[in-house]
Amino acid sequence: MSNSKVAEFTAPGMNSESAEQTIAQLDNRMVALIDLQLTLKHIHWNVVGPSFIGVHEMLDPQVAAVQEMTDTIAERIATLGGVPVGTPKSIVDRRSWEDYSIGKGLVKDHLVALDKVYNGVNGDHRKALEKLSELDPVSEDMIIAQLADLEQFQWFVRAHIESSTGELQS
Predict the structure, then answer these.
(1) Where are the domains of the chain?
(2) Does residue 2 register a pLDDT over 70?
(3) What is the Rg, in whole angstroms, of the alpha carbon atoms belonging to the chain?
């Protein structure tokens, strides 16, 4: 499925080539965030252990915030003349990472795995920023704001798996 620009317009003052490149960057981030929100909800449903309730309740606000981020990106893609495609098969087909592998599991196991998920999402958001800084300052600003929240969410996760000496459990 092609995610290239299909409209005959883009944002005023932006050329078609920049719009198409921006849409490609945003599409990649949208796919990652859809995957992240589903992974967060999966963990919410399947986490067990002594710290269950704290983690269970920590994840729902993250799900809601990531869902809002996804919507913002999809609407920006449409604003630039693109088509945001969020169907399940298209998401799986377009992602470049393996599916989250833990089912029902202990808090520590899920949070160590979730930290790795955040490493990927946040690292790729930073890579997108490098490209967006040359293409579209509006999209760049949007991703910067999202990254600030995503990094804070990762800090919340790490607070559960960090030792008093600052080492993360693995």
Answers:
(1) 16-161
(2) no
(3) 17
